[in-house]
Amino acid sequence: MSNLRILGVDPGSRYTGWGLIDQEGSRLKWIASGRIEAYRAGELPARLKMLFQGLSDVAQSHQPAEAALEQVFVSVNAQSTLTLGQARGAAMVALTMADLPVAEYSASQVKSAVVGQGKASKTQVMSMVQIILNLQGKKLTEDEADALAVAICHANSRQFMDRPELRGMR
Amino acid sequence: MSNLRILGVDPGSRYTGWGLIDQEGSRLKWIASGRIEAYRAGELPARLKMLFQGLSDVAQSHQPAEAALEQVFVSVNAQSTLTLGQARGAAMVALTMADLPVAEYSASQVKSAVVGQGKASKTQVMSMVQIILNLQGKKLTEDEADALAVAICHANSRQFMDRPELRGMR
Questions:
Q1: A10-35: per-residue pLDDT in tens?
Q2: Do the Cβ atoms of A35 and A8 come closer than 8 Å?
Q3: Using the beta-carbon criterion (under 8 Å), do A75 and B78 form an inter-chain contact?
Q4: Which residue of A has its CA nearest to B104?
Q5: Could you give the ipTM of this predicted complex?
Q6: Of the candidates A97, A35, A23, A109, which has an alpha carbon nearest to the alpha carbon of residue A60?
């Protein structure tokens, strides 16, 4: 299997985590990660612009080959769902405008891939991301860890597929 | 009051209506309108890209000064709300990346501005848009008429304000 750079994204209208890993055969290597603090931009249109520009810059700087997004938790609160949907739409446009194929995974798929079980806690996800990517001692935000977890999930699901283009891809 | 070109948008993951009007004093003039048929692009990421590119092209070609969006109807169905939110996020990014201030109006504000009452039917909105913009005989899609109605609503609310920059703007 050839090397592949994957961009994982955990979008939100306040914080958007992003994380880049290289898949080199069965090895996963951390490249960069961070979070976009869109809440600083003020009202929603300005936030979405900041999110879009931030992710576009990340894609431009690091040239990933594929992207992966966590499927959104559909909240009981319709207004929260709408807000999160808007952030997710802005993120998706940034990724597709950078010509990246976008794969989507549910939260339980991500947790299973990283921790080995679909109901893992945030702390477990954080710890396993640090172990898998050899980042012990590096301080990660939760958003960053979640984004790296989605990237790891995508790398794993590619690895176990005969036809990667047929699964998880949209 | 100076002339102003307004872009109204009615976003959706299948169809996105857009409509441009010029406000010349108290007169409103139709400039262009249409709809982006994003459902043709296939899956959601490709749809959102088409929506973003389509609105970016409209903004580039017609150089509006301000934009107005209808606030989304929050559905009982959370998945529909999420999908609509994603389309709206993509639209909002296209408008803000074109450096347009984005105002938002509820459906009842739009109907009141165009028909004179907040519970008007789609047919009433369509007819009044055609009368106000002198488009009798021109065939409009519902999405196009809704987008023009939002633009008219924005023009009206600007006209009746002492400080247009303080109301409805985000």
A1: 999 999 999 999 999 889 999 999 99
A2: no
A3: yes
A4: A45
A5: 0.84
A6: A97
